[in-house]
Design brief:
This protein has 131 residues and is mainly α. It has four helices and four strands. Helix content is 40%, strand content 8%.
Length: 131
């Protein structure tokens, strides 16, 4: 489940955590739910049509990718265990329908698979960068 920060500091029009002022903005629960609904709708459309729609990559996933790999779709970390833009391990990659090496997959496919994972489990698969 997503943890929402207590709004302890205010910078401009954005409420942010005091410890993460430089790192991320605090998202409202309504906005996160809206992003998940949108991602689920994209997944349903993909299953129904069988083609690969253009998946909107929400800012929360862009933030996760920037934290995990610096946004590099070919990144390899954790001694080769975590691969790609979102640092998938092979088991998680296959659970969201990926095959082969996540770091060798096109960036658009990595975005789609990360959106699927985010729609299913929220930010919990990224315990450090998904906060």
């Amino acid at each position: 489940m997503l943890r929402l920060a207590r709004r302890t500091a205010r910078v401009g029009h954005t409420h942010v955590r005091r410890a993460y002022v430089r790192r991320v903005q605090t998202w409202s629960l309504a906005r996160l739910r809206s992003e998940r609904r949108s991602l689920r709708a994209d997944i349903r459309r993909l299953r129904r049509t069988g083609d690969a729609p253009d998946v909107h990559v929400p800012a929360v996933l862009q933030s996760i990718a920037a934290c995990e790999s610096g946004g590099d779709p070919h990144a390899v970390g954790g001694g080769g265990t975590f691969r790609g833009k979102y640092q998938f391990d092979y088991a998680t990659w296959s659970r969201v329908g990926g095959s082969g090496d996540p770091a060798a997959a096109p960036e658009a496919e990595q975005d789609r698979r990360a959106a699927m994972l985010y729609a299913r489990a929220g930010s919990s698969p990224w315990p450090v960068c998904g906060r």
